[in-house]
Each structure stands twice: as structure tokens, then as C-alpha cells.
Amino acid sequence: MEKIIVRGGQRLSGTVQVEGAKNAVLPVIAATLLASEGKSIIKNVPPLSDVYTINEVIRHLNTDVEFANGEVTVNASRELFVEAPFEYVRKMRASVLVMGSLLGRTGKARVALPGGCAIGSRPIDQHLKGFEAMGAKVKVGNGFIEAEVDGRLHGAKVYLDFPSVGATENIMMAAVLAEGTTILENVAKEPEIVDLANFLNKMGGNVVGAGTGTIRIEGVDRLYGVEHSIIPDRIEAGTFMVAAAITKGDVLVKGAIPEHLSSLIAKMEEMGVKIIDEGEGVRVIGPDSLKSVDIKTMPHPGFPTDMQSQMMALLLAADGTSVITETVFENRFMHAEEFRRMGAEIKIEGRSVIMDGPTALQGAEVAATDLRAAAALSIAGLVADGYTRVTELKHLDRGYVNFHQKLAALGADIERVNEADETPATEETMIKDA
Ligand SMILES: CC(=O)N[C@H]1[C@@H](OP(=O)(O)OP(=O)(O)OC[C@H]2O[C@@H](n3ccc(=O)[nH]c3=O)[C@H](O)[C@@H]2O)O[C@H](CO)[C@@H](O)[C@@H]1O
Ligand SMILES: C=C(OP(=O)(O)O)C(=O)O
Asked: What residues are in contact with ligand 2 under a 6 Å CB criterion?
């Protein structure tokens, strides 16, 4: 077990490189199951614990998977097994994304029920509604969801009650090999959906409209392994943008795509942060004092829930009253309690938090409640008085590569140590192959 120790007070400057997007690579690796011929070669893959987990899941389904030097190679040409057990789904909810591919390719899938997690109950009813509309019979029992179709899935019209990212992806993956046309309405428009659609189309699929509210898919008979490079991680980029701004720093976030970050950029600019599109990335220059703003998380292109806790750190440093309203997840304010341990005064009222800033944050021992909270608490530590110790780093490793090293290279006083004796952590102990 390890923790991060940050001493506040350093201004960040320099350049930081963004990795491939966690939330794009997980569905793309799940989609490699659809290729009954050829190898898929996925590039720009970050060495995250979630990537090791999805690789283990698809290996378990009778594929060959190699992961080295940022490239995942998958051969899924053998007959697939159809069961994803609880040991994987428990580690990572996104394991349910293999369900659509398995159903499309084999007509059957058996996946352990994901259950809730620290940010809410996270049901998958919309995924299942899509599979059922395409002809699958869905049964839930003994901790598993089982979906099966006689023959092949058929195209259908599916309206999502909420533009769920995972449901959009899972249904897209099932529909590419279905017979006929599927029309998905009120779908998620996240950049990761577009990346998945691009991958499916390269494989031989016919997906139109990704990135808009309606996606149309003409089913095809067969898909092939192809090469694909994953888009940059907009949430990792946003995390470093906030770190730069809170320290009054000057940082080039290389690889950040401004069009993927428009809501965050708009809000940071309202706060007085200077943001310059430099083509190869985004330069962020923090002002001497930050203005308070209100934030409401929404599906893309609204403000991303995955940036909510980092933004809470930034708003604590801002002058005046700010309100954050979380509309995507029912319970994503667990980190507020940890910020309170650092001296923050935060009122929680239903789905909103109210903060009066600027807060003179104090170093404290805090526990990460999810992966973004791990980053947000470290960021708060960059400006807190004294030492902040962040524990529960298993969450951080799900979504960030070399997080403390990247901050240290920008000038932060930060290290990662063993929890018991505070000796430095080593590469081997940081991320363990699942
Ligand atoms: C691996 C991945 O890409 N994870 C992202 C994905 O998660 P994920 O795909 O799980 O998020 P969804 O968009 O599906 O969930 C959003 C909301 O819809 C609800 N819901 C979802 C599906 C369903 O069938 N029924 C239902 O009620 C969820 O409980 C949640 O309240 O999108 C989230 C919202 O942008 C991000 O925070 C996650 O980082
Ligand atoms: C909530 C997140 O991920 P997941 O859906 O994989 O839990 C996230 O990336 O912030």
C-alpha cells in the first residue's frame, strides 16, 4: 500500500504529455472481440490497471492478448468463451462492455452483475433494454446477467432514457454484427463514442452519426482486425490544466484537444485562467486570483462529471461563492468530506455543494474515494500549507500513468512512498498486472 506526499507551495511550469484515453481504450479493446479474422493492433494505450483488467477479461474469453510499448495486440479469431466472471467485473465495472461484442459475435453473453460503486448505484438497464430490442432474451440470476439470442441479433430502434456512455457503446458493439439497421436515439456524444465508431468502421462496420444524438448502424456479416490509435485522454489533460491553474503556473498540456475540452476551458476562462491553443496542445496560465463560478455536470458537451472533483479543488481556491451541481451520478461528492479534512468549508445540499472561497487549505492525511478524487486531493495538496498525504492509490492507478512523476517534472514537491515506512515506492509496486 502506498501514498502520495505533497508539500504545497510550488508553482508548476513546463510541459506535460497526455496519454491515450482510458475511457476510449476500454471499449475499443472490448470491440476487438468482434473481429473473427486478423489481429487488432491498438496504439497509444496507457499502462493503466484498468487496461490490464480489460486485457485479462478478453484473454479469459479465449483470445491472445499482448501489451507492450503502448500497443495492445489482440487475436480473437478462435471461438470465444462467453462468460465474464465477478473477479473482473468487481475490479472494474467497464468489464460489462464485453457483453455487446459477445452477443453480436456469438449470440450469447454471461457477465457478472456489476453492482454499485463509490459514485452511485450505476444500473445497466439501458444496455439491457437495447439488447432486448435487438431480440436477445435477458435473464438475471445468481449474480449474473445472461443474454442470448436464437440465431443472430436483429436491427432495432432504441431510445435511451439517458445518454449513457456505456449503454451507447455496448449497444453499438452488438448492433454492428446484427442483421439489418439499428437506430439509437438520445445517445451519448462523448469523443470516446466517436473513437469507438471510427474503430468499428475501420473493422468493416457501418456506423454513422457518432458524436450526434442519433447513431445509425447497418449490420454487417463479418469484422476484421485492424490498426487503431486511441485519442488523447481529455480528463487527464483537464486534470493537469487544473493543476497548472491552481498553482498560478504556466504549463503546456501537450496532446490536449481543445474541442474535447470546451466546457472545461469555458469555465476556467470565466475563472480568469488564460488558456491558449498552441496546436500541439493547450497552454494554461493561472492568474494571481481566481474568480468563483457555478458548475453543473452534464453529458458531453456539458461539463464532465470526471472533472468535478478536480474543479472542486480549483473552486476552493477561488474568491467568492461557487456552487457545483452533480447531475450525472447520484453520489459523487465523497471527496468533499476529504477536502473538509484539509480545512475546506463545503455545504452539501442534495445534488449541490456550496463553497465559500478562497480557502486557506491545510495539509492533512486524506483518502482517495475514486480515481478522480485521488487526483483532485493531490492537486489541492499543491497549494495547501504543509504536507498532504493521499492514500488509497489503487484508485489513482486505474486512470493515471506516472501521475506524481509528471507533477514532479513540472516542479511540484511530490513523492510516492510505501504507506508503512514512507520509503520511496518503486515502478513494480505502483501498477500491478491484474
Ligand atoms: C469507462 C467509462 O467510459 N466510464 C465513464 C462512463 O461511465 P458509464 O458508461 O458507466 O456512465 P453512464 O453514462 O452509463 O452513466 C451515467 C448515468 O446514467 C446512469 N445509467 C447508466 C446506464 C444505465 O443503463 N442506466 C442508468 O441509469 C448511471 O447510473 C449514471 O448515473 O461515463 C461516465 C459519464 O460520463 C464517466 O463518468 C465514466 O468515467
Ligand atoms: C468514473 C470513472 O471511471 P469508471 O466508469 O471506469 O468507474 C472515471 O474515469 O472518472
From this structure: 23, 93-94, 306, 371-372, 399
> Which ligand 2 atom is nearest residue 92's CA?
6
Is the pLDDT reported for residue 432 higher than 60? no
Location of C-alpha cell 485479462 = 56
Strands 71-75 and 320-325, by their bridges, are unpaired
pLDDT of residue 85: 87
User: CB atoms < 10 A from the CB of 118, how many?
Assistant: 15
pLDDT(116) > 80: no
Residues 71 and 156 in one domain: yes
Considering the domain architecture, whether residues 206 and 224 belong to the same structural domain is answered as yes
Q: How far is the CA of 165 from the centre of ligand 1 (A)?
A: 5
Q: Which ligand is nearest to the CA of 93?
A: 2
Q: Of 200, 229, 258, which marks where a domain is finished? A: 229
Within this chain, do residues 105 and 196 fall inside the same structural domain, yes or no? yes
What b/e string do you get for 317-347 counting C-beta neighbours within 10 Å, with b at 16 or more?
bbeeebbbbbebbeebbebbebbeebbbebe
- Taking the centre of ligand 2 as the mean of its atom positions, its distance from the CA of residue 114, in whole angstroms, is 13
* 93 annotated to bind ligand: yes
Atom 8 (ligand 1): residue with closest C-alpha? Answer: 166
On whether both 138 and 277 belong to a single domain, the answer is no
Give the CATH number of the domain where residue 93 resides: 3.65.10.10
Res. 9: pLDDT tops 70: yes
Residue that is written with C-alpha cell 503556473 in the block: 249
Residues 84, 223: one domain? yes
Are 225 and 89 in a shared domain? yes
Task: Report pLDDT digits (tens) over 129-167.
Answer: 999 999 999 999 999 999 999 999 999 999 999 999 999
C-alpha cell at 322: 461557487
Q: Which ligand is closest in space to the CA of residue 398? A: 2
Q: Would you state the pLDDT for residue 428?
A: 60
Question: Percent of the chain beyond pLDDT 90?
Answer: 91
| Domain boundary pick from 229, 248, 271 | 229
Does ipTM top 0.85?
Answer: yes
What's the confidence (pLDDT) of residue 434?
37
- Give me the pLDDT at residue 433, please: 39
The span from the CA of 410 to the CA of 368, in Å, is: 22
Q: Which domain holds residue 293?
A: 2-19+232-430
Compute, in angstroms, the gap from residue 399 CA to the centroid of ligand 1: 16
Residue 117 annotated to the active site: yes
